[in-house]
Amino acid sequence: MTEDALASALVAELSKKTGVSWLRHGEETFPVWHVWQDDALCVVSGGREQPLPDLVDGDLLEITQRSKDNGGRLVTWVGQVSVVRPDDALWESTTAALVSERLNLRDLSTAAEEWARTSVVHRIRPTGRLVEDPDSLSDDAHRGAPLPTPATTRGPLPRVLHRRVKRRPKLS
Fold first, then answer.
1. Measured between alpha carbons, how far is 1 from 96 in angstroms, rounded to an integer?
2. Which of 2, 54, 91, 116 has the fewest C-beta atoms under 10 angstroms from its C-beta?
3. What letter does residue 154 receive in the DSSP assignment?
4. pLDDT of the chain along its 172 residues, tens only?
5. Is 68 exposed, middle or buried (0-12, 13-18, 19+ CB in 10 A)?
6. For the chain, domain boundaries
7. Bridge-partner residues for 32, per DSSP?
8. What is the CATH number of domain 3-132?
9. Residue 28 near residue 59 (C-beta atoms within 8 A)
């Protein structure tokens, strides 16, 4: 097997086994849930789905994936974006794969129609170029600040009633 074939096999295997990858677009990195289908990473964003910047056909992204065994960074590869539109031939198969793996959908039967109205479906194909592989991982921590969010707690924390009284043991 050639190095390119090994790299492709590694990317495919990791993409099938992991549910979350990190996409680097420009200077920002975004965690995304995805599905591996037909040799491409499939992602849905926008609307009620995960936030991503506007990605257009031909954009190049760096995708970082972790080992499922120990959670450590294992590979970073370069992928090329293509937008899947509702009138494309790949729409049905791509959205069917995404719906089958999507957790907590309100209605499985109407998810693809909702995505067609409010979201964008992307397919990210590996270019064959690895930025990092298991033999050459960088020492960079890859830490970043969390994205701003309007999310907040619902209110104050509840009071704890009827705390257990700690009794001192008798010394004599």
1. 33
2. 2
3. S
4. 456 777 788 888 888 888 899 999 888 889 999 999 999 999 999 988 898 988 999 999 999 988 777 777 788 899 999 999 999 999 999 999 999 888 777 788 888 899 999 999 999 999 888 877 666 666 666 666 776 777 776 777 777 777 766 777 777 6
5. exposed
6. 3-132
7. 21
8. 2.30.110.10
9. no
Tell me the residue length of the chain: 172
Structure tokens at 9: 């096999």
Q: Which amino acid is at 24?
A: R
* AA letter at 22: W
DSSP string, 87-137: TSTTHHHHHHHHHHH-SS-S-GGGHHHHHHHH-EEEEEEEEEEEEE-TTS-
Q: What is the pTM of this model?
A: 0.77
